[in-house]
Specification:
This protein has helices spanning about 5-15, 20-55, 80-85, 125, 140, 150-160, 200-205, 230-245, 265-300, 305-315, 320-355, 365-390, 395-399; strands at about 60-65, 90-105, 110-120, 130-135, 145-150, 165-170, 170-180, 195-200, 220-225, 255. It contains 13 helices and 10 strands.
Length: about 400
Amino acid sequence: MKRLDVFRSAVWALAAHPARTGALLLALAAGIAATTFVASVIGGFSKEIDRLAFGAYSTALVIRENAFVVDRHGPPRLADARPLMQQVDGATAFAAWADGRAEVWRGGESLRFDVYGVAGRYIDELDTPIAAGRYLSHDEVGADARKCLVGHELATALGLSAPPQTLRIRGVSCEIVGILAEARSRPAGRYSNAVIAPLAVTQRYFLDRDSLAPGEVDWITLFMRPGSSMDEAEIETDIALRSVRGAPQSRPSPFSYGDPNATLEQQKTQRDLLARLLLTVAALSLIASLIAYAGMAGAALASRQREVALRMSAGATGRDIRAQVTIEFLLSGLGAGLFGLGAGASLAAVSARVWNWPMILNPAIALSSVALGLSVGLVVGIVLAGRAAGLPPSLAARA
């Protein structure tokens, strides 16, 4: 038989039994859809967990004074930020912070809250949208303007509405230019009950402590390019700071790296455990789907013994039968892969919309889904094709 005739026979065999073909497709497509869905969910889930748990800290390096080392170097300084930007590969911006406590009297009660002074690109680390008003501008955080932002919890407690309004902190007035909405990540939640003002103003008027010398800050945050190695960035930062401060490499570092409010390792471990659980469920679904597909394929071939024998009696060779059966299952595997990919991606898109997190379908996963369908169809087709080609034509007469 010609190759085109063999292909037409394979397509006709699939089309002639739509119920059987549909059952085969669904059996394999179900497992591929489950795998695609889980892979998409894990991608979006991981990104959302990073955003909720870490915010900007997933790609940022926080530099603080090492409280466990007694030395003469003190906390980080605002002047350290510029050399770090030049010497740390992958650093794109910085923010410098100083914090303290303050209180106001409202209705005869004392309301205590945090006060943060900031310089640099603070909005990424703030990771909180504006509910009313605006953010502090770049010029304002770098100057002595007595302007501030108020967290949503503090604004609610003080009964503040839309700015501009004035808030007195330690006897000094501060013009409120914006009220923050709810934080989008766990570390950013620290600003919910807080006032944020330019660093120079905060250190001069609002801080309730004198432990920081002029120019010193509680922490500096280096924002890194996505994909940067945080371990390498920490090493480069430590070398640069030691060089600036004259701290020898033989002594413990005078600085620590990391934010106590962003427990990266614990969160990543929890995320990885859940990802493994989902992958295990998807793998079991895929194995069950493969078993079902192979079983249904064998049953389908057994029900076609008369058809195969009649074709052989009409002159088809064993090679023709093997080619036709292989093409049939190859096409069914391809169809199952495409259908499973579409079903899994669609379900993931709906789930992402319902759960309000991003859908991430890696192109490699999509190609793997189609390749898996083709591979399974090819393997099953080759195995069953050999069995079909071994049927004697005498079966036609007995049928």
